[in-house]
Amino acid sequence: MRRLLGGSFFITATIYMAVSKPPDHITLLAMLLCTVCAMLVTTKQYTWPVVIGGIMIAGSLVMQAALSYRCTDCLKADALILCGIVYLAVFDKSGFKLWTRGTAAGMTLILLTFFILAAPAEQVLNTNTASRYIQASDGSSDTRLDTAEKSVLLFNPKCSACGEVTSKLVQLDPYGEHWIPVQTGGNLQDGRDYLTGKGYQGKLYITKWPGAVPALVTTQENSTVIIRSPDQMIKIIGGGGN
Predict the structure, then answer these.
(1) Model confidence, pTM
(2) How many angstroms separate the Cα of 13 from the Cα of each of 87, 149, 231?
């Protein structure tokens, strides 16, 4: 029963990545490693799944930090893998149990810190009506975007979770009449190429954003909120939004 439950966290992470992320080489590698971890658990090999899981979480966070974005789907998959690591570390009776438990504790602290650091900007946007304005740049000059006039989609071209929602919003409104795409870090030209390839013909801005993407920031009836659900984003933009 312990082996079944321990492996289920890794299998769940694999399934989640399969249904939520496009099948790029990084996603496929992560799915393969999660499957390997699940198989190792069934043979009562707990140490290696903890090691591999820790490496996957660390690699995910390093990539997001290096590319200046926070991927919602990546963080959810990381959390599932962490649950598996913690569970296995608790029941590990091998000679490496102190090491595996230390790894589990360390990865828990790192992931929790990552979430906390991303939280302040999101909390401010949810509670402060003045933060309906987002400071951004078009590459040549700075501007202040009013999310009461147009909803702002925060995205990153390196974020696999952003691909589907940006494609659908471009299909709904290719000229950006009801929304404005704002890239979170990186090279602005990469963002232009990314959106142009999807058929977007409107303006593009860039800003620094510590929170997770994709995120739609919109202000309605003097209330500024962050929308995480792709379906809700499409509903807002498709219905005319702001």
Answers:
(1) 0.67
(2) 14, 38, 22
For residue 158, CA distances in Å to 42, 168, 226 come to: 35, 17, 21
Phi, psi dihedrals of residue 79, rounded to the nearest 5°: -65, -40
For residue 214, cis peptide bond before it (omega within 30 degrees of 0): yes
Q: Are 237 and 166 in contact (CB under 8 A)?
A: no
With b for 16 or more beta-carbon neighbours within 10 A and e for fewer, the 111-138 pattern comes to: beebeeebeebbeebeeeeebbbbebee
The closest alpha carbon to 154, from 176, 178, 134, belongs to: 134
Quick: pLDDT tens for 10-53.
999 999 998 877 677 888 999 999 999 999 998 888 899 999 99
- Burial of 6-17, coded b for 16+ CB within 10 Å and e otherwise, reads bbbbbbbbbebb
Q: Are 227 and 233 in contact (CB under 8 A)?
A: yes
**Contact call for residues 152 and 182 (beta carbons, < 8 A):** yes
* Maximum CA extent, the chain: 62
59-106: pLDDT as tens digits:
999 888 776 677 778 888 999 999 999 999 988 888 888 889 999 999
Structure tokens at 124: 């401010």
Residues ≥6 apart with Cβ < 8 Å to 27? 17, 21, 160
Per the CB < 8 A criterion, the answer to whether 126 and 153 are in contact is no
